[in-house]
Design goal:
9 strands; disordered N terminus; seven-stranded mixed sheet; alpha/beta
């Protein structure tokens, strides 16, 4: 992944509000214009001792191989038997949760994801965000088509009802928006990262309003989700892709990271008819996630 201007191209408490999940961030930015980017919200923690990292590789590498060589075929069988139903969904959640555990991520969910046709939108830090959300609720992601070729993860993501987008292709975007709206009408959940790509983990980027058009068209609710790595979100920059770092490099680096808490905060749903079009929804969704960060 190449970085340009800090951007990479490419269970349970109910009824919570944004104040239930805490981060450190500067006062909120409400505009979704491309020039509006939040101030820094994390700092990189010091690198831990190399011997400890080596020990983690020794312990986790066999677990990862077991998960890939034994766990994955079991998941493939369950997905085939489930034919896209509850069994298939449970298999994907099981795979995602165990993968996160192997990587030392200890999950805490705050809030409850809406059932039925809902557009979930979250801040985007790294590829592992997809695993975080898949571990909690079945939702079809909007993801760049290159993910199909990623080892292991690409296949799992494809089976999780992902809608692949060819970036830079206007026809592809139109087809994706049509598919999103139809899934929402059919009562199926869809997820997207409105920032449009991963960043350096230091700031919350602008939310692109166009992605919310599908929810407006389908009259479906939008639920913001705040993803926090480490206490007070202090590991966002560690989880994010480093400059010039590719997927395999990031995966191997994260495999050696210390155990840390990860919080997935499902915030207050947004009804599309309560706001002035997709731009109003985008502003509200971004404000909720930013407010969750500001309460640290």
């Amino acid at each position: 992944s190449r970085r340009q201007a800090g951007v990479h191209q490419p269970d349970y408490l109910g009824g919570v509000t944004a104040t239930a999940c805490r981060w450190r961030i500067m006062p909120p930015v409400v505009s979704v214009a491309a020039s509006d980017v939040s101030p820094r919200m994390t700092t990189r923690p010091p690198t831990d001792a190399r011997p400890l990292r080596v020990l983690r590789y020794v312990w986790r590498t066999p677990l990862l191989l077991w998960h890939a060589l034994i766990g994955l075929p079991v998941v493939m069988l369950l997905i085939a038997l489930g034919r896209g139903g509850p069994l298939s969904h449970a298999a994907v959640r099981w795979f995602a949760r165990n993968l996160l555990w192997i990587f030392g991520m200890r999950l805490q969910r705050v809030g409850t994801p809406l059932a039925g046709g809902t557009l979930f939108v979250a801040n985007h830090v790294s590829w592992i965000d997809i695993m975080l959300l898949d571990s909690q609720h079945m939702m079809g992601f909007i993801a760049k088509s290159e993910i199909r070729a990623w080892p292991l993860l690409g296949w799992v993501v494809a089976q999780a009802e992902t809608i692949f987008l060819q970036r830079g292709n206007g026809d592809s975007l139109g087809l994706v928006m049509t598919e999103m709206a139809q899934r929402l009408r059919d009562g199926r959940a869809v997820a997207a990262f409105p920032e449009g790509g991963t960043r350096d983990g230091e700031a919350l980027g602008p939310f692109h309003a166009r992605i919310f058009a599908a929810a407006v068209e389908a009259a479906a609710p939008v639920q913001p989700v705040a993803l926090c790595y480490g206490p007070q979100c202090n590991a966002q920059a560690v989880i994010a892709f480093a400059p010039g770092e590719h997927f395999v490099g990031n995966l191997l680096r994260l495999l050696g990271e210390p155990v840390r808490q990860v919080r997935v905060c499902f915030l207050t749903p947004i009804e599309p008819d309560a706001h002035s079009g997709r731009r109003g929804i985008a502003q509200t969704a971004r404000s909720q996630i930013e407010q969750a960060m500001a309460q640290a």
